[in-house]
Amino acid sequence: MHPVVKPALRRGWRDLNTVQFGMTPAHALTLGPVATATGSFLDLLDGTRGLPLLREEGRRMDMPEGRVDALVERLTGAGLLDDARGGGPAADALREKPDVLDRLRPDLATLSLTTPAPGGPLARLAARRALRVQVRGAGRVGAVLASVLSGAGVGTVDVRDVGRVEPWDVAPGGLPAESLGSRRDAAARAAVRRAAPDRPPRRDRAPGPGAGEAGLSLVVLAPRDDVAVHAPDPFTAEPLMASGTPHLYAGVVEGTGVVGPLVLPGQSGCARCLHEDRTDRDPVWPRLVAQWRSGRARRVGSACDLGLATAVAGLAAAHALAFLDGGSPSGEGTRWEVSLPGLTWRARPVRPHPACGCGAVERGEEEHSATGGEPRGTMTVQQPSTERRREAGAARPTGTRRAHV
Known about the structure:
The protein is an alpha/beta fold. It has a domain at 131-351: 3-Layer(aba) Sandwich (Rossmann fold), CATH 3.40.50.720. It is 39% helix and 15% strand. The chain contains 16 helices and 13 strands. The chain has helices spanning 36-41, 51-60, 67-77, 88-95, 98-103, 105-114, 120-127, 142-151, 184-195, 226-230, 234-243, 271-281, 285-294, 306-324, 360-371, 385-394, and strands at 3-5, 11-15, 18-21, 29-31, 81-83, 132-136, 156-160, 218-221, 247-253, 256-263, 334-339, 346-349, 402-403. The strands form three sheets. The protein has a seven-stranded mixed beta sheet. It has a four-stranded mixed beta sheet with strand order 2-3-4-13, with no helix packed on it. Strands 1-5 form a two-stranded antiparallel sheet. Helix 8 packs parallel to helix 9. It is elongated. The protein starts with a strand and ends with a strand.
């Protein structure tokens, strides 16, 4: 191990014996009491030295025997140390591409805050190269979202859509003005390639139109049609449900941005659950949806403000990456909505519905029986202890989490 104090966290001394790593309540941690020699030793944890050399440096600084190992162990337990050479073969391969790694430094820094295990941040970043994500929809939301995922290191981002690029499809980070009149899907895939920090890994055979959802890590449904955003069609998602493919909804409708739900087939509420729940609350809902879907299509589409569309694309990409990196983002079973001009995000739960055959209700009942505490139809998501610790820290003012050294 070559320990390095995570560079994403700024350091400051609260007093002569207490050092604080990080500024924000979600990630700040104080260490103390810290002896003078220990404080100086922290500067040596820069990833250039292995443990044998660090022990030797500790002896030169008159630190007690075993103090270096104890300090490294406690800093590691607090989630403050990374391993400059850890992460496994995939991480080693990424280190051999310094230009690519430099492009992804901010993403790596973020992963270092959410991945406590030494070597874990680079391992997760390298693992993104093997992922396959499909984005269905190449409008102002979908094209930008696809480019963000590609720029964040996702190895293969495929974009599906029909028609040709119209002037109102153009957006910074998405479809450029030069693509006007081009096939919309081809222009979006070109934008994805431009955003990628590295060429995607080669595959034996590119999936054809009939390849279905096999091998996809995630599908993002970002329709340009405003009705499809407001009322996702359960029929469209049936192949995804049947194949067990996780999928995330995102879009803008009438000045309202929507992100979610993230659907884990058989585990969380799906598009049909949403439809059934809305029908329960408003019996005329199916009649309205039928009229909206059969109405004349708008040439320009819905009110999709550029700033709002970009915000939705960014939040959807963040939810997607959190899921792809192994986390449990709040988009699971939740539909996040924000409307102009207030721009206040609201979380609307999408609960499993008994009338839906997706199996999520049965899963919730099984977990209810196992835990004995949750209401019918809900899910229990076991978070890693590090996430629970991080959330506990976020609930307190900066600097109140403390680890003794």
